[in-house]
Amino acid sequence: MQLITMMPETRNEKRETRSKILLPDIQFIKRVKKESNSDLKACMQCGNCTVVCNLSPEENPFPRKEMIWAAWGQKGMLIADPDIWLCHQCGDCTSNCPRGVKPGNVLASLRSQTIEYYANPSFLVKWLKKWWMLPVTVTIPMIIIHLILIIAGTLTITPDPVNYSAMFPHALLNSSFSILALLMIVGIVFSIRSFWKGMVKGYRLSGFEPESQSSVKERSPIKSGMTEKATSIIKTIWQVKKELLAHKKFKDCETNKFRHLAHAMVFYGFVALIVVTLFAILSAILGNYPMPFLNPVKIVGNLAGLSIVVGLLILIFQRLIKKDAVSSSNFFDWSFLISILLLVITGFFTEYARLVNDHLGYYWYLFHLIIMWYVILYLPYTKFGHMVYRFVAMVFVIQTGRK
Amino acid sequence: MEKKLGIYICSGCEIGKSIDMAALEKVGSVSGEHLCRTHAKLCLAESVQNIQEDIKKEHLEGVIVAACSPRFFTKEFSFNQLTERVNLRELVAWSHEAKDADTNMLAEDSLRMGLAKMKSILSPTPFIPDQSSSEILVIGGGISGITASIEAAKAGYKTILVEKNKLGGWSNHLHKQLPMHPPFDYLEKPLISQKIHDVKTQEKVEIHENSSIKEISGQPGEFRVVIKQEEKETKRKVASVVLATGWNPYDAEKLTEFGYGQNPNIITNLDFEKMAKAGPVLKPSDGEVPKQVLFIQCAGSRDKNHLPYCSNYCCGTSLKQALYIRESSKETSVFIVYKDIRTAGKLEAFYEKVQHDDQVFMTKGEIGQLNLQGDRILVDVHQTLLGDNIQLEVDLIVLAIGMTPQNTEDLNLKYRLGKGLPELKYEFADSHFICFPYESRRTGIYAAGSVRSPMDISSSMEDACGAMLKAIQCAEATKRGEAVHPRSGDLSHPEIYFSRCTDCKRCTEECPFGTYDENEKGTPIPNPSRCRRCGICMGACPERVISFEDFNVNAISEMIKAVEIPDEFEEKPRILAFVCENDAYPAFDMAGQKRLKYSPHVRIIPVRCLGSVNNIWISDALSKGFDGILQIGCKPGDDYQCHFINGSDLTEKRGENIQEVLEKMMLENERIKTVFVEINEYDKIPRIIDDYVEEIELIGPNPFKDM
After folding, report:
1. Which residues, including other chains, have CB under 8 Å from residue B187's CB and lie 6 or more apart?
2. Same-domain check for residues A82 and A129
3. Which helix (H) or strand (E) holds B675?
């Protein structure tokens, strides 16, 4: 709640801090150009992108301003800009840009650089963005899992019929994954804390005021009591959560209707899998595991997995077919999509092997767990982090009174 | 003696259905001398053939074609005899009730007016200068003048090219030139040296460098030019003149708000270009390579306090100069702050190319405070695209300054109306840039390049070709005694009956084209080939001694008198309308084509310009019994549409004298009204007419009606 009080108090304070000499970051320009595969500099500030965007707010809309900030190498302003997270990258702006500078791609690159900037430790992002670092980043979870199993002495226990809990006992599984989740949450908290600070600083420096000062004061709970502040931010979080769950914003995108569907399939698949996993843990504790194939929970789980696979295939397919309309894809995008795909597919293989009693299943299971670690451990540092960053940015935006 | 006329009435295009043809034919046959025929379709080749045979067989001295508007079938109805067109289609049949008594009266009056006019006009005999020249004088040896000379030589015309310094003009200072060839995205070698070489090797171009014009007298076809080179004077006779004296940079000393003169590192785009030509661009203060360069666009342009217009060339120039820096020093960043980037046409490709440079930064913005302390200059920029205000730290500022036209008094015209060309709002020597580009207000003198309007090299070259074509046209038309635009091909010209001239100087003062010089006594000396045949002098002359053979005071007076005015006023008022042939008359034609209906009580007399309306016509009309008089012409003012520049202005001025006439006759002011219409305002015609008829009906009849 202290963070909220860092909101600007007066207009004058803002003016003073703003008159800073502007220096372009040339390396940043080069990097955005390269990552987004865009002739960024050719933007003539016509504002078509902003006009066609259904998600852009009326006051100080995006992405026109982001385009010139990027062309002028204003990295500081961009990494503190919550607006880039309001974009769902549907490609409306890119397909309507008269200069072909692909604003959608530029925003994607800016988001990726924002994740990189705030990530703590930041070397992890740098590694994860490079394909030739893949052996290193994959080896880390591999070693950890092997170490756990070697220390527990269960690595070589592969009984017939297939029983994965013999190789990886449930207690060990649950506790190691709890630690893993904790690590991830620590990573998120550290990264998001500096992200929020950055946005607050940017808000004070930026010439763009989300609304007139008076109404910001009315809206933002600067002068009100602690409880009010707390309820306000909780309310906002609740609101954003609802919006994200409903995928409401996504529906407004026009160029790419399929994208909305595909993303929803993946997203809801994940939500369902989380619920199913909770049931699984519960039934494992109660000793009733693995569940039979036709158990309703199991059915839901399998359908959820299927939904993710289909959704991902659509997304991957679109990236391959409409290369420029959707986005230019680099390793950051591909590694995210493919790791999730592999995660679900290995899951299915593991399940299948168990059902047909194929001993290869033990390898699939190991593979599945390694990818699981890869995905969860690195969540704040891969594109998966967009979930958290977008959520936080939307909360920030509502808190500062942006419509 | 009265001429024998052939009167041909067409009944096609609904004319026959609308008008009582028998009654009309009776009007035509009033004098048994004339031949009067009606025909169902007069514009057919065989009907035209018949008229031509009639002319030969019946020895006709004039032909009246009462059919469609004189603006149509001009080729078909041009005979080698004097021809008058009576507009029965657009002005009568198409715009009034069919088979109506009032419509018939209108048609009959129209024919009577045509007949009356025919009595007082003659086929014009052209004025052809005795010793007309075919040579063309080009003043100014910059890119425009050189191009004009080369193009003329290629077309077979000899030119005399006069340059006050040495050939090349501002182009001599160029380091590189904006792209003129596809793909329009790379800088080119300046082409001026090639052009100078080309013009020097042209046989048909006589070059006078380091020379000026001492005097130009005479008229198109026979301008007498005195060229002065130090003490040496050369005399030449030319048919027409292309003025390509170019431009001067706007005085940067006046740009104190951009710190010019207060810091050596604040320079103009011209200084910059000269530096770039001499070597790499360095800071004037210490000779170091600049690290951050700011270009301020529109420095003193599009600015009420300096130049209110856009000079066209500065955006392209700054983009070009930004590339000079980027090419010579990789670590230097360039900022361009503009009001708008204006790279019209193909230059957009070059703009895009410069945009692509990672270290060229452009934004719209207003330059605020400049902090000049120390080596670095801090510049506040307001209202930028990056969001309100930013501050830039730069070490070199380039001001993109605009163009001002060279003074045209260098022409040294021996004209009564002055040495130079009359100027428009922004002091450029143009007559009307939309309707008549290159034309100045002095016939036979055509402006090309930046003296006419601010422009860059490629536009100047195009302009030079256009102006030279007009100059050649003028030379040829003058040889045949024809008017140049807008009455192209008109063979008539004003004649003065000197024995009754009172030397009042009205004609010499009011002629927009300086046709008249005058002697010591103030007697006008006409120069007919300077004339554009608008008749403004005729309208001005209080003694009515100026006339054209086919358009004169008497002829129009006869037309006015030919109208039959009904005795009773009730429901039959009569309005006379003087309608300008240039825009208002076509608007009436269009109203007819759209079948818009208006009051049939109006009698229309087309005039060459509202300025040609002589006050005597007004008193004639009022004495005759017309209840009201309308004058309909083109819009006057700064954005005038008058084809003869100030004809409509003069009508307003002369209005005061007309009021005196009305006062003398004890008549109401409203009996004379002036209305301005644009050519596309045909839809307003019915309202203009009907409202005025209603107004006159309220005032009541002209008391002179029965006298």
Report:
1. B176, B177, B178, B179, B320, B323
2. no
3. strand B672-676
pLDDT above 50 for A215: no
Contact call for residues B623 and B513 (beta carbons, < 8 A):
no
By percentage, how much of chain B surpasses pLDDT 70? 99
pLDDT at A21 over 90: no
Whether a cis peptide bond, with omega within 30° of 0, leads into A290 is yes
Q: What's the pLDDT tens digit per position in B61-101?
A: 999 999 999 999 999 999 888 999 999 999 999 999 999 99
Question: Which residue of chain B comes nearest to A16, CA vs CA?
Answer: B389
List of chain A residues whose C-beta atoms are within 8 Å of the C-beta of residue B358: 26, 29-30, 33, 41
Specify the higher pLDDT residue, A239 or B599: B599
A81 and A152 belong to one structural domain: no
A298 at B interface, C-beta within 8 A: no
Report the domain count for chain A. 2
Give the pLDDT band of residue A129 (cuts 50, 70, 90).
confident
CA separation for the pair B607, B538 (Å, rounded): 11
**Phi, psi dihedrals of residue B312, rounded to the nearest 5°:** 70, -35
Residues A89 and A148 grouped into a single domain: no
- Choose the final residue of a domain: A55, A85, A119: A119
Q: Is residue A17 part of a domain?
A: no
A157 and A292 housed in the same domain: yes
Q: Which residues in chain B have their CB less than 8 angstroms from residue A50's CB?
A: none
Strands B516-518 and B524-526: antiparallel
What is the C-alpha to C-alpha distance for residues B67 and B9, in angstroms, rounded to an integer?
Answer: 6
Residue of A nearest to B376 (CA): A21
> What's residue B272's pLDDT?
96
3-state secondary structure B389-439: EEEEEECEEEEEECEEECCHHHHCECCCCCCCCCCCCCCCCCCECCCECCE
List all residues 6 or more positions away from B636 whose beta carbon is below 8 Å from its beta carbon: B642, B646, B648, B649, B651, B652, B676
Note whether A382 and A332 are within 8 A (CB): yes
Residue type (1 letter), B367: I
A188 and A211 inside one domain? yes
Which helix (H) or strand (E) segment holds residue B233: the answer is strand B232-238
- B93 DSSP 8-state letter: I
Position A158 confidence tier, pLDDT thresholds 50, 70, 90 = confident
A403 touches B at CB < 8 Å = no
Task: Inspect the interface and report whether the beta carbons of B358 and A42 lie closer than 8 Å.
Answer: no
Q: What is the ipTM of this complex?
A: 0.79
Q: Is residue A14 part of a domain?
A: no
Residues A88-114 have pLDDT tens digits of: 888 889 889 999 999 999 999 999 899
Secondary structure (3-state) at B207: strand
Distance from CA of B354 to the nearest CA of A (A): 9
DSSP for B31-49 reads: STTSEEEEES-TTSHHHHH
Q: What is the mean pLDDT of residues A249-267?
A: 79
Nearest-CB residue to B391 (from A20, A33, A41) = A20
- Report pTM: 0.82
CA A222 to chain centroid, in Å, comes to 30
DSSP H or E stretch at residue B267: strand B266-268
Whether B159 contacts B140, CB under 8 Å: no
Written in H, E and C, the secondary structure of B445-460 is: EEECHHHCCCCCHHHH
Q: How far apart are CA A229 and CA A224, in angstroms?
A: 7
How high is the mean pLDDT of chain A?
Answer: 81
* Residue of B385, B388, B391, B395 to mutate for A, most A C-beta atoms under 10 A: B385
Same domain, A107 and A210: no
- Most distant CA atoms of chain B, gap in Å: 99
Domains, chain B, with CATH or none: 1-123 (3.40.50), 136-246+406-480 (3.50.50.60), 251-403 (3.50.50.60)
